[in-house]
Amino acid sequence: MEFERTSGVFLHLTSLPGPHGIGDLGDGAREFLSFLETAEQTYWQFCPLGPTSAAHGNSPYQSFSAFAGNPLLISLDRLAADGWLTDDDLQPVPDFDPHAVEYERVADYKREKLRTAHERFRETATESDRAALDAFRDDEPWVEDYALFRALKADYGGGSWIEWPEPIRTRDPDALDDARERLAEEIEYRVLVQYWFDKQWNAFKADAEDAGIKLVGDVPIYVGLDSADVWASPEAFQLDDENRPTAVAGVPPNSGDDGQKWGNPLYDWGTLADNDYDWWARRLDRLFEQVDVTRLDHFQGFLEYWAIPTHAESPAEGEWRDGPAYDFFETIGDRLGELPFIAEDLGFPDAELNALMDHFDFPGMRVPQYADWCQDGNAHQPMNYPKNAVGYTSTHDTNTFQGYYNGLGDRQRECLHYNLGVDGSEINWSMIEAVWRSDAVFAFTTMQDLLALDSHARFNTPGTAEGNWTWRVTSDGLDEDIATKLGTMTMIELR
Questions:
Q1: Tens-digit pLDDT profile for residues 41-94
Q2: pLDDT per residue over 443-463, tens digit each?
Q3: Which of 132, 288, 413, 470 has most Cβ atoms within 10 angstroms of its Cβ?
Q4: Options 186, 268, 361, 397, the catalytic residue
């Protein structure tokens, strides 16, 4: 798909301001929409929206479902406005940190309130309310397996489905029917939470459309092993007769490292192709109900992927296997129409990968923190970005730009100054301007970079298990002067 040249800001929803310890779909989301309007921006980009787990560090890239929404993003204030909670129900509100998400405390508080709202629904819901819930269940068939999965997971003490009793693990129909009857109330609760998420998301998306803001989502190529996706659709993955993975995802060793074994189950691309990639089509169809454009994480995995035997001790024991490549995107395009994808390629030279992206007009990513500032023509220097690229000042996986700049050696810093024609004062704005002036079809910055925040505001450090995904902006941080400055730059450089 060919895009028009424009710009946007990355800010995950958990990072929004709000009264209940985490960003949500309430007033904080509208505050940021207003900020983007003032800043003359077109896009708001964020991480995946699925339900997260403390066991995986609350990473949005290790979700229980590729279809479901994160219950922690539901606005309790909006539930109260709809009559499912009272102001008294929300009290007392813990003294949450406005600058960081304290996931354990937030989860304890919000889940208790969601349970209270469910009880009120059971007691007071009208025929119209129940009809709306039933319509949601009919329109979103994935929700039944997801709700059953979460109910079973709670019933089995939170353990991975890989360890569940064999009839449930392998989805024996009689065992599943018994579980649905036994856990009917818990299943209703899980469905209802997803219904509320959807209702609030749809209202938020409508407000974004009214503000002229388009939404950019994110698709991790792989899903978590302990997810409703793998349990409910084992045929889509490389599993054995007992529904356990035969091989898992990762990357091979490179010079200076041992490679990585991620542990995600691999897709059975042959079986998926035989069914016209139906699981993926349903996944993407669901996503495009929510967003306008999406980033495809680890895009290389569609061309080729590193398969590591499940019980291998080292990633080096893996092998390269062919992905579905052109056939996948052609088939998905026939079903869904235009493919508004951004490919996470990070600009590294790979002729086959570039050919695949060029064939479908998928722009790749360029990030200045990967640049050698003393190398003439380096691909990650903004002045060298090609048109079919998305230029970032930083990403959710990198340091903030200010943090990166503070850590540069003297020579790289001097070369950066020379290339940008700056002295290093307000270096965040210098880099934003450089990305905005580039030929890239999309120019993106982050809220942290707009605020010139250092490494303390970094959102995620790959390879670390704790301390990630916590940073939040306050309402004061959504400064009108900053928005106006970005808006002026955008009008000059991109319009």
A1: 999 999 999 999 999 999 999 999 999 999 999 999 999 999 999 999 999 999
A2: 999 999 999 999 999 999 988
A3: 470
A4: 397
Q: Where are the beta strands (DSSP E) in 246-318?
A: 247-251, 260-265, 293-296, 304-309
Task: Classify strands 293-296 and 260-265 as parallel, antiparallel or unpaired.
Answer: unpaired
Catalytic choice (297, 345, 433, 449): 297
Q: Any catalytic annotation for residue 297? A: yes
Q: Residue 276: helix, strand or coil by DSSP?
A: coil
Place of tokens 């200010």: 402
For the question of residue 344 being annotated catalytic, the response is: yes
SS3 293: strand
Is 397 a known active-site residue? yes
Nearest to 50 by CA among 136, 119, 118, 143: 143
The answer to which of 59-68, 373-382, 431-440, 461-470 has the lowest mean pLDDT is: 461-470
Q: Which of 474, 476, 446 lies closest to 460, judged by CA?
A: 446
Closest CA to 280 of 327, 321, 322: 327
Residue holding tokens 């779909």? 25
CA–CA dist 217, 60 (Å, integer): 12
Give the C-alpha separation, 254 to 93, whole Å.
49
Q: What is the DSSP letter of 311?
A: T
Complete DSSP assignment for 331-394: HHHHHH-S--EEE--TT---HHHHHHHHHHT--EEE-GGG--TTSTT-TTSGGG--SSEEEES-
How much is the pTM?
0.97
Q: Whose structure tokens read 């309007």?
A: 37
